[in-house]
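Reopening: structure tokens for the heme C complex, inputs below.
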Amino acid sequence: MKFKVLLIMVSGGAVLLSSFTRGDQQETDYREKVYLDKRCNCFVKETYWNGIKSTYEQVKDTFDFVPLGKYISFYANGDTAAVTIYNDYQKDGIYYNLYEGGQLWEKGRYLADKKEGLWFYLQQSGDTVYKQTFVNDKEHGDGFLTFERGGQTFREYRSYTNGHNSGTWKTYVNDILSEQTVYDRSIPGKYTVQYYDTISGGLIYTTVHAKGKKAIQTINSPDLYKQMQWRAANMTGEQIFIVNCASCHHPFKDATGPAMKGVLTRHSEAWVRKWIKNPAAMIAAGDPEAVATFNQWNKTAMTAFPYMPPKEVDKLIAYLNSL
Ligand code: HEC
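Re-run output (same inputs, fresh job):
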């Protein structure tokens, strides 16, 4: 490693210049400039990497670099990246960082190196991503978090007491309540989660957790629960057919039930949809096509799929049409 240091006195301060090469890395030019900044009447240290300003820091005096005062870091283009206030090596005062271009990214306050008061993060669009109050470096009070996943917007309302989850937390998916958690601070580790159907708004199931105990699950709506399982499985039309229909139906040959190819020319799509949901009801109601098919197949009963959600039926119909 080659290292040369030059110290040049400039008016009211000093410039420290150094350049060095490490291994086969490109020569790096590192410079420090320490001077009395008339604007704050304080000593300032600036550092430059290959001519690009990387930090601006207030220092006690020219040769005492104990962080004290304002410390600013920069993007390569010279835009401010972050501003930290130090007091005797501790972060103390307002802190913020910015996106390249100057848009506010994160803002909060430190008190003796600990987060205190409201902290928040913003998206480049200016929308809040995270908002939380801190007391003595711990989350305390109401908080808010939002994020995107799989094309959906999640919003989470939280609550803390001295860094511990407390009160009622709510999660909304595309503005519809999907989860509600209630923390019971009187019993350690006890919380109850209620899961809602984001289509109908109905309560699907409830889970009660307690420290060292197996979670107790209660199904509030068996119908919605089955629909939820269908949606969670997120199968293709072909997978739905293999898992649910192929035990009785072959795509091209008759089996326990008729071959599926051409079924949508024998019946209307609306009829097939209704049949999949509840074949027995159609036979009982005397639907002529249903009764004829049933008799033709020696009155063998077909399984009903009443809880298959519309989207899954769509995929299945598309698969049957593709045969
Ligand atoms: C337990 C066996 C069984 C299962 C499982 C089953 N089916 Fe059937 N299916 C039949 C039988 C048998 C018939 C003939 C009518 C009758 O006997 O009710 C039939 C008839 C049909 C018909 C009318 C066919 C025609 O040519 O008229 C369609 C459409 C159909 N089933 C679709 C499905 C789909 C889609 C699934 C899976 C989601 C499925 N079936 C699962 C046994 C079954």
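Residues 244-245, 247-249, 256-258, 263, 266-267, 272, 275-276, 279, 293-294, 297, 300, 302-303, 305, 316 surround heme C (CB under 6 Å). The two ends are 71 Å apart (CA to CA). Marking as resolved unless the reporter disagrees.
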